[in-house]
Amino acid sequence: MKAITRDIYIADEIRFQIERNEYKPHDKLPSERQLCDVFKSQRTTVRLALENLVKEGWIYCKENSGYYISEPRIIDTLNVVSSMSGRINTLGKKMHRKVLYLREVESNKKLLKKMGVALGTKLYEFERVRYLEDEAISLETAYFEAKDFRGLLEKDLVNNSLFTILEKDYQVKFVQGEQEIIVVNANEIESKYLNVPKHSPLVLRRGILYTKDREIKSFHESVMRMQRFIYADGD
Fold first, then answer.
1. HSE on the CB side for 74, CA within 13 Å?
2. Count of beta carbons in the 10 Å neighbourhood of residue 116
3. Per-position b or e across 54-86, b if 16+ CB within 10 A of its CB
4. 211: closest CA among 149, 152, 121?
5. Which of 52, 127, 152, 205 yields a CA-CA distance of 20 to 30 A from 104?
6. CB 185 within 8 Å of CB 156
7. What is the pLDDT of residue 77?
8. What is the C-alpha separation between 145 and 71, in angstroms, rounded?
9. What is the pLDDT, as a whole number, of residue 80?
10. 158 vs 211: CA distance, rounded Å
11. Sheet holding 135-145: strands in order across?
């Protein structure tokens, strides 16, 4: 068993205080010197704990000012297919969407490999930016076989959850998936829509979603701000 070092212990304690709402978003943490006194530790140890919390997205640093509590993060389950709208609602935050396009395209070699459809198959390509309050948090793209979703181009996907529309209007519910999560560097388009510096780290979640009978499938890609999400096993 790996020993718990002092910096891990300090980070765990601060994380626990945040989870218990002892600190509110954007509250300032005690100074490094004060934390040294509280935890009876050296400054280098406390600083390492704080740096780890910054990397995990629990806190953020203002130069020449100190460390502050980050906004609550969205829990994204790894093996459960669910609407992000519902997960965001649990934070008590307002969410809105900006649809970049919803159009009909033909399957290319990439989608042929991802979706297992024939080259030239008619697909609906859907891309939008999701906002939490005024902050762009994810750039999402989805592909569906057009034959399974007649009339999707006319649906109101700005004010409604995509999953809700598919379930309500088409009786299609995605319940299974094969997905992967990797860290990528923001390209020019992602930098523009998520308002982050080019080449800054983002989380890419992509994969195939299936209905229970596996007859209908969709390929999804979501590029997300790292500090806005935490990933957990859905079991």
1. 24
2. 12
3. eeebbbeeeeeeebebbbbbbebeeeebeebee
4. 149
5. 205
6. no
7. 53
8. 37
9. 45
10. 24
11. 95-106, 122-132, 135-145, 217-225, 201-211, 174-185
Task: Give the residue carrying structure tokens 């969407």.
Answer: 97
Contact between 91 and 105 (Cβ < 8 Å): no
Q: Which residues contact 83 (CB under 8 A, 6 or more apart)?
A: 161, 162, 163, 164
**SS3 sequence, the chain?**
CCCCCHHHHHHHHHHHHHHCCCCCCCCECCCHHHHHHHHCCCHHHHHHHHHHHHHHCCEEEECCCEEEECCCCEEEECCCCCCHHHHHHCCCCCEEEEEEEEEEEECCHHHHHHHCCCCCCEEEEEEEEEEECCEEEEEEEEEEEHHHCCCHHHCCCCCCCHHHHHHHHHCCCEEEEEEEEEEEECCHHHHHHHCCCCCCEEEEEEEEEEECCCCCEEEEEEEEEHHHEEEECCC
What is the pTM assigned to this prediction? 0.65
Q: Residue 104 burial by CB count (10 A; 0-12/13-18/19+): exposed, middle or buried?
A: exposed
In degrees rounded to 5, what are phi and psi of residue 50?
Answer: -65, -40
Low-confidence ranges of the chain (pLDDT < 70): 1-3, 73-93, 228-235
**Tens digits of residue pLDDT in 68-84:** 998 776 555 544 444 55
Output the pLDDT for position 48. Answer: 94
Tokens 């002892």: give the residue.
22
Residue 89 tokens, joined? 């609602």
CA angle 57–58–62, rounded 5-degree value: 80
Rg (CA), the chain: 21
